[in-house]
Design a protein that fits this description.
The chain has helices at 2-17, 21-25, 31-38, 68-72, 76-80, 101-112, 126-129, 134-137, 153-158, 162-167, 183-186, 203-208, 223-227, 250-253, 259-262, 284-287, 289-293. It has 318 residues and is mostly helical. Bound molecules: heme C (HEC) (10 copies).
């Protein structure tokens, strides 16, 4: 009985790992099995093929590891007549025999769709539905995959996403080129429940994973901040620091059009009863045109623009 339960558990966990177990079961994934292919595609092949044994796909001691045929298919015809019959699955995007994207991806998803090696939102995702292949990003025979290295990852994305690539080279940006923040810190390229493949269900939740202090809770919230950080910031980069869409006062004036917002240099335009000192006058520092007109603009006075916890911070001045 105990043995039966054990067998059941093993079967169940194996089928969770490998969705298409029957197809894979026909393949001998050992080094010995690989010899069917490596007799020709060995040391002397024009491209480095055996390098796969230096990757996670070459850890033969791990029973889940694929053999050549797990990815390329059994390829019986190719083995007997390599000159005129390609293998069942050809990944090389430049090859005239390249397999349809769906077939290439199916070969990976047999092992990587479910549970432990989770790609569970791939199906229907922006990349899947626009015909992007797993192997457009992953180079499987290479011991150093560009896309898995934080410093080089964005170069892989740049082959298709030129606009974002240009933005991450701007003056004010996240440290993406240094690999301290990666595209995949904010995006799950394999599919997500959020918009724009974001790792969380909204823009703000994504930003809060690192900028937790901006979440609040605040006694006085600034409505556009709780709505979306992208009301004011460009996540990929901007020529206006810090990652701003526009400089103040224009930034603020896109939403605030009262007399005071239109002409902050005139104390007369400050809202009535506005003044925060005991005698009803603006603090001296704020009265001088220099203080009001300096680069911080509206922010010279409204400094807690992301929200305030000060009892008198309703106008984000403290
Ligand atoms: C008898 C030698 C031989 C064996 C065995 C062999 N191949 Fe090939 N393979 C070749 C030759 C030759 C080519 C180049 C064919 C061409 O360029 O027309 C090739 C090409 C390929 C290509 C590139 C196809 C393309 O169109 O870009 C892949 C992938 C491949 N083989 C995988 C395998 C796999 C996997 C196995 C084992 C299941 C295997 N080969 C077994 C000789 C062999
Ligand atoms: C995990 C999946 C996977 C496994 C396992 C795998 N390959 Fe590949 N193979 C690929 C992909 C993907 C490519 C396309 C090039 C790339 O991404 O590196 C490729 C390309 C090739 C090519 C074409 C190289 C060229 O001329 O452009 C050959 C030949 C090949 N593989 C043979 C093998 C052999 C032999 C084995 C077993 C030792 C093997 N592959 C194991 C996925 C795999
Ligand atoms: C027979 C099952 C199997 C197949 C088929 C397979 N893989 Fe894997 N893959 C694995 C296993 C096992 C690992 C190692 C997982 C681990 O160490 O946790 C792995 C690891 C990976 C990794 C992580 C590599 C790293 O260095 O961290 C990537 C990326 C990957 N596979 C992509 C692919 C792609 C793309 C394909 C299709 C071309 C594919 N795999 C086909 C079983 C498979
Ligand atoms: C748009 C580029 C891109 C595509 C397409 C893509 N990946 Fe990835 N993959 C990445 C990046 C970036 C990472 C590392 C960060 C991460 O885990 O999200 C990664 C990591 C992985 C890992 C290892 C990390 C882990 O979660 O265990 C596996 C396995 C993997 N991908 C499999 C696949 C498979 C299978 C497909 C196709 C269904 C695929 N990938 C398609 C970019 C891509
Ligand atoms: C082979 C080309 C290709 C590569 C490489 C690629 N993408 Fe994409 N990506 C696309 C296509 C096509 C779409 C869907 C059309 C669109 O929105 O541009 C897309 C969509 C997206 C979206 C969602 C856009 C939206 O409007 O919902 C994000 C985010 C994204 N990619 C990020 C990445 C990241 C991050 C990488 C690198 C790890 C990457 N992509 C690599 C082709 C690619
Ligand atoms: C700091 C987080 C963050 C990083 C890092 C990041 N993105 Fe984004 N990305 C976002 C947000 C947020 C959006 C949604 C923008 C919006 O809704 O206005 C987005 C949108 C996108 C879109 C869709 C663009 C559109 O106009 O619809 C693509 C494509 C994309 N990102 C690709 C990338 C690529 C490629 C990288 C790496 C070079 C990257 N992103 C790095 C946060 C990030
Ligand atoms: C993976 C972590 C991470 C995520 C997610 C993230 N950031 Fe950042 N952010 C950073 C780091 C690291 C810096 C650089 C801090 C430094 O240079 O001192 C930074 C800096 C900034 C800056 C200031 C730039 C400057 O020049 O001072 C702004 C604004 C910013 N992030 C906005 C956002 C927004 C908006 C989001 C969501 C779309 C977001 N961040 C998501 C890590 C992250
Ligand atoms: C109403 C416009 C606006 C919105 C919305 C907004 N910010 Fe900002 N943010 C700014 C301005 C303006 C600055 C520059 C402040 C300064 O110079 O004192 C800034 C600065 C920053 C900085 C760098 C300085 C600091 O305070 O740490 C980070 C990080 C940041 N914002 C993150 C975020 C995040 C995360 C969100 C979304 C939760 C967000 N911002 C929403 C206007 C905004
Ligand atoms: C995307 C639109 C938007 C932008 C950009 C924006 N705000 Fe606001 N702001 C609002 C909204 C909406 C409210 C809430 C108004 C209300 O409750 O009547 C608000 C409230 C305020 C308040 C409190 C007003 C009150 O009556 O309590 C101040 C002060 C303020 N914003 C200053 C700024 C400054 C300074 C900037 C530029 C750094 C800015 N805002 C940028 C939309 C915006
Ligand atoms: C010299 C300091 C100072 C500057 C600069 C300044 N404000 Fe104000 N702002 C105030 C004070 C003080 C109040 C009134 C506080 C009160 O009534 O309690 C106020 C109130 C507001 C209010 C709420 C009342 C209203 O008029 O709707 C908004 C919105 C606002 N400011 C936006 C802005 C914008 C946008 C800018 C930049 C164009 C700006 N402020 C520049 C000091 C300043």
């Amino acid at each position: 009985m105990r043995k039966l339960i054990w067998q059941f558990l093993v079967c169940a966990s194996v089928s969770v790992l490998f969705g298409s177990l029957p197809a894979l079961a026909q393949v001998d994934r050992s080094l010995e099995g690989d010899k069917k292919c490596t007799v020709c595609h060995g040391e002397n092949w024009s491209k480095p093929i055996l390098t796969i044994y230096q990757t996670k796909h070459g850890v033969k001691a791990d029973g889940r590891t694929p053999g050549c045929q797990s990815c390329h298919g059994a390829s019986a015809e190719h083995i007997s007549d390599p000159g005129s019959k390609p293998p069942n699955v050809v990944f090389g995007a430049k090859s005239k025999n390249v397999s349809p994207v769906a077939e290439r991806n199916a070969s990976c998803l047999g092992c990587h769709e479910s549970n432990v090696l989770s790609r569970s939102h791939w199906s229907g995702s922006q990349h899947e539905s626009h015909g992007v292949a797993c192997t457009d990003c992953h180079e499987l025979h290479s011991p150093k995959q560009k896309v898995l290295n934080p410093v080089t990852q964005s170069q892989v994305c740049a082959t298709c996403h030129k606009a974002q690539d240009a933005q991450i080279h701007r003056f004010s940006r996240h440290p993406v080129l240094e690999g301290k923040v990666t595209c995949s810190n904010c995006h799950n390229v394999h599919g997500s429940v959020g918009p724009k493949l974001l790792v969380k269900e909204s823009v703000n939740e994504t930003c809060y994973t690192c900028h937790a202090e901006k979440r609040g809770p605040f006694l006085w919230e600034h409505a556009p901040v709780t709505d979306s950080c992208t009301n004011c910031h460009m996540p990929h980069g901007s020529n206006l620091s810090p990652l701003l869409k526009m400089k103040a006062p224009m930034l603020c004036q896109t939403c605030h059009s009262g007399d005071h917002a239109k002409n902050m240099y005139s104390a007369a335009n400050l809202p009535g009863g506005n003044v925060t000192t005991a005698n009803g006058q603006l603090p001296l520092g704020s009265q001088s045109p220099a203080a009001q007109g300096n680069a911080r603009s509206c922010l010279a006075c409204h400094s807690t623009i992301h929200g305030s916890n000060h009892p008198a911070g309703a106008k984000f001045e403290r």
